[in-house]
Amino acid sequence: MNGYGIDMTYDEMKDKLQSRLKDSRFIHSVGVAESAVYLAKRFDVDVNKAKIAGLLHDCARQYTNEQLIAEADKRGIAYGEVEQAMPLLLHGYVGAQLIREEYDVDDGEIAQAIYRHTVGGANMTDLDKIIYFADMIEPARDYPAVDYLRELARRESLDEMVLAGLSRSIEFVLKKNHLIHPDTVLARNEILLKLGK
Prior knowledge:
- By secondary structure, this protein is an all-alpha fold.
- Helix content is 68%, strand content 0%.
- It contains 11 helices and no strands.
């Protein structure tokens, strides 16, 4: 895995992650890595980066919601009122730094994909989009729209499928009457404008 600031082997990362996460979260993480590899091959994105980002995207889920606030504060991670009200959203931000601290991954593209995997963001790279979408469609996911989104992963453009994912995410959050993160709206609007819709 050497070549871009990565000293641990994938199997070493996997073993370390397994020791830190609940079994169901670890299985999910391996599934996201597999889905990310599929999408990376389909869209000609660095497969190793996708695999590592997919595996480690939830590495900060080793912390409780209360701990995530403390971990973000400890690292000087900026966050707003939405994250304060919904601390679980901080796991991507904390995870983006944790990969360097605990998994010897010093790669800005991987860190950014992990940072953005929950709510999206402005100017998402193809790797960002792949990790965001792989998180939604990995094999262990089971919710009403998942088969539809998996079908999009086989036939649509990366932007079309991520647009659908962002839209479903917003619908889900609206139904629960939760806060919608502004980065999700920003990411969706950017893709809509890019696609000319």
